[in-house]
Amino acid sequence: MNLQTLRRYLPELILSAMTLAGIVFYAVGVYDVIKLTPLYLIGTMVLLGVYLKHEKHLWYIWASAGVIGFVAEMYGVHTGRLFGSYVYGDILGPKLYGVPLLVGLLWALVSCVIWSTLPEKLGLKRVFLLATIATIYDVALEHFATRFGLWSWQGSIPLSNGVGWFAVSLCIGLVLHIKKWRLSRTTLAILILPLQTIFFVILLWLEG
């Protein structure tokens, strides 16, 4: 790999290295690596922001998805009517009305990377695909998050959580579609959710 290629794919290499390091540290018994989850999320967002810094719609997409997701989470935590009855732990950091601020960032990240990888020519189908992919991603996320204390449910993970994720993601997608906000497709965005999912699955496997 020459220097020019290295520079071109540096964000992807950094993200891959961060993910691999987390897996290795946990595998050798450094279990506190889970407490670095906020840094991983923020680091991923910074890498993506640097990568897409010239995209004029990036901040609109992040803000809209983050606010919609965060408000939905506040409603869900306090009523149990959207996702089910759950509470957040302390790993994700400072909270506002019972919801970690980083949860808004997570909604922004997930929505942004999915939206950027789906072709504009799909039209309204793009909205439903965003909601479907986000909900599938959440299956792995939920099992990881509950196993490692990011949040907890009253009982098992309810079906209503998947319905809630689909509904909120659909709302976000509709806003992005109506506003016609665009993002370029990048290899970094394509990698983010698969790498996170691999991380979730491997750590769950290591836990047995």
Number of DSSP strands? 4
Structural class: mainly alpha
Helix content: 55-70%
Number of separate structural domains:
1
Strand-residue proportion: under 5%
- Number of helical stretches of at least 4 residues: 8
Gyration radius (Cα, Å) is 17 Å
Instruction: Characterize the overall form.
Output: globular
Q: What is the topology, as strand order, of the major beta sheet?
A: 1-4
Biggest sheet statistics: 2 strands, antiparallel
Mean pLDDT comes to 93
Helix and strand succession? HHHHEEEHHEHH
Task: Describe the protein's architecture and organization.
69% of the residues lie in helices and 5% in strands. It is built from eight helices and four strands. The chain has helices at 3-8, 10-27, 37-51, 58-79, 101-117, 125-147, 159-179, 187-207; strands at 86-88, 95-96, 99-100, 151-153. A hairpin with a 2-residue loop joins strand 2 (95-96) and strand 3 (99-100). It is globular.
Provide a compact summary of the structure:
The protein is mainly alpha-helical and 208 residues long. The protein has one domain. The chain has helices at 3-8, 10-27, 37-51, 58-79, 101-117, 125-147, 159-179, 187-207, and strands at 86-88, 95-96, 99-100, 151-153.
